[in-house]
Amino acid sequence: MVFLATEVVLIALAFTTNFVSAFFHSNFLDFDFFKSVATKNALNIVEIEKFFGLFFEQSLQKWTIENIGGWQFWNSYYAAAHPVVAILTIVFILVRAIHWSTSHYNWTRVEQSDFSDLPSQSSYFVDGSKRKESLIKRLFFKRQVLKLNPLEQYRFLRNIYLISILISVFGYILLPTMPPRLLNNCDFFNHNGKLLGGCLPQFNFIDTIDKHGSLFFSWKDESIQVLNNPYAALPSQHALVAAYVAIVWIVFLFSNSKSSGSNFKSKKSLVAFSSLISLAVFYPLLTLFCIIVTANHFIFDAIMGFTILSSATLFSLFLLNRCSNSYSKLSEDLPI
């Protein structure tokens, strides 16, 4: 149970990054300096996006207002989907790992010395027969991630998440950035009466949560003002975590697919598999659209989130490769 308690604590701490950065800034930095740096960083991002032709956030928000609407949905999606989907996904792979560990005695370990033609990574079989891996499984990750058992996969995926979040909290502390919705805001004050907005007339962003509200919170709620870092925009954790969730489900689906090459046992299994993969890919795209049209992030924030996630994934693959020898002993050293 020490393993479970440790994992719960680590994951819980990872969801406090915004609060940690808010505590740091409120206790160790002068607010006016904090705000000036955040404003400068936001304006620098605007210039970078204009240089690369990526500054389309205002136009996209205007188009969404005129053609789509549904701001209660978008605002509530922004407020709730990020933590809820992430928590459910991480809990799922944790429970899956625990279930695999506790039922491990039902499996037979196949040693490579006995079957020289088996994959070099850990493989588990019920009857000792050789599992025929599809080409896409062999190529999906160079470090054989899809061949790891559920416990090994959980540790690998958990490492990606924790490393990404750790990097992002340093971004919130060292690179405070004013979100688009505050650039032209002149009437939003924090709990100490300090103006949070930049009051810059050259922008026309709309704070959709402030104007239309959400089902979960308002920026002017006292608890939000005390605990939230208003300039925690770079990187976008919404984009980062949404892409992470997609990675988790893609790894899970390909690891558990019954396909051989491109052949499925039935059309239903093919449709179900394809639908779930499509949903996994669609989720970060929908989240990206949401964070832009609600004016909570620049596209640059999302790009940095994806970059951090990619770096964390590569580093986790490096750790996986370095620790492959110790992973091979997991069947004897179960955490529960």
TrEMBL record:
Membrane topology: Multi-pass membrane protein
TM region positions: 77-95, 156-175, 239-257, 269-292, 298-320
Signal peptide, first to last residue: none
Compartment annotation: Membrane
Keyword annotations of the record: Membrane, Transmembrane, Transmembrane helix
Keyword Transmembrane helix annotated: yes
Location of the Inositolphosphotransferase Aur1/Ipt1 domain: 149-248
Pfam family, one: PAP2_3
Keyword presence, Transmembrane helix: yes
One GO cellular component, as annotated: membrane
PANTHER family: PA-PHOSPHATASE RELATED-FAMILY PROTEIN DDB_G0268928, PTHR31310
Protein name stated in the entry: Inositolphosphotransferase Aur1/Ipt1 domain-containing protein
UniProt organism field: Smittium culicis
